[in-house]
Amino acid sequence: MIMSKLSECEKGYINREINFVGSQMWVNPLFHWSKQRFHEYIHAYELKRNPVSEILGFSGECLCGAFAHPGEKALVRIVDPGAAERLDALECRVRAAGHNWGWEDGPPAGAVQFKKEKRNGQQFMPFCMGCTKVA
């Protein structure tokens, strides 16, 4: 078992089984499972998938929009109209602040792109699994 002790300021996804952030302990019991094993387990025990992930195609815990694609906000609206309204309001605020792209758009040509900051070479995002984990 690999364990990580992080300060409050260390953020991002840590590719480990157990992570500590202050008094919080984040445990991923399926960390070493491949996607195939995960799907075989669901099938073998006839487990029902989360209807949110069935509709969205991802878990939907954070809705950070980092990899949002056209049509994604319409799916969010089906699952949680209130969350979609909040995204609409945030998008309006962002556009009013001078950013001319929205939730499902990529940045315009020539926009300054910032790289993710890493501390100690790792990131910790407890709910994010698909962005950086290599199975």
Average pLDDT across residues?
A: 76
Total helical elements = 4
Query: Roughly how much helix do the residues carry, as a percent range?
Result: 25-40%
In what order do the strands lie side by side in the largest sheet? 1-2-3
Question: Strand tally, please?
Answer: 3
**Can you tell me the overall shape?**
extended
SSE run = EEEHHHH
Give a short account of the largest sheet. 3 strands, mixed
Low-pLDDT parts are: 1-13
The radius of gyration over CA amounts to: 18 Å
End-to-end Cα distance: 17 Å
Structural class: alpha+beta
Percent in strands: 5-15%
Structural commentary:
With 135 residues, the chain is an alpha+beta fold. The chain has a domain of 94 residues. Helix content is 30%, strand content 9%. The protein is built from four helices and three strands, in the order E-E-E-H-H-H-H. Strands 1-2-3 form a three-stranded mixed β-sheet, with no helix packed on it. Strand 2 and strand 3 form a beta hairpin. Helix 3 crosses helix 4. The radius of gyration is 18 Å and the shape is extended.
Structural key phrases:
about 140 residues; alpha+beta; three-stranded mixed sheet; 3 strands; disordered N terminus
Secondary-structure blueprint:
Layout: E1 3-6, E2 18-21, E3 24-27, H1 35-44, H2 51-56, H3 72-79, H4 81-96
Parallel strand pairs: 1-2
Antiparallel strand pairs: 2-3
